Amino acid sequence: DVGDGVGGICTPSSNSAPDAGSIDAGSIDAPPDVGVMPVPPIVVNHQPAELVLGQPDFTADIINNGGASAKSLQNPASISVTGNGSIWVLDVGNSRALQWTSAPQANFSPAGRVLGQSDFASIASTSPTAASLGNFLSGVSAGGQGLAIADGQRNRVLIWNHSPTFNNLGADIVLGQPDFTSTSFGTAATGLRLPT
Q1: Integer Cα distance of 164 and 144 in angstroms
Q2: Are the C-beta atoms of residues 115 and 167 closer than 8 Å to each other?
């Protein structure tokens, strides 16, 4: 179902959840919000979400509401929830990935960690490095101890061997490119083109 407000999700993109008792949904179109983990677990169709990230309430739809910050989002595209309740959201319009280190308890909760930017107020796309992210992020997977982010604009997947413990930590491994500064799409077994 597509819609605005408590009972709807606008264009879900991709997601990953630890079990059938929780849900998460990304959005690549307005409204720029993400509904996360209703309590109690989902038991009926069209069950309303309990809280919203990126907006102060379910009716707001302002890009970077209140300005670029740990609370704001611009076109979230993919999210991943770990078994311990940590949530990663790809904030595509701001060229960053945000992490809530524990399950948020209120609307508009601030993220605790940012990757791809030096701080929560920075949102510009920068030159490719191990720590930068492009503005066409297409997938995130957080499982076990590691993290993987598909950086489609740069034809690469970045992998952190351990979940980042501080802001703007550079990736450990890059797939699809010979180094962290290259961005060409590949046609060989080692190359990628717009990974998702």
Answers
A1: 12
A2: yes
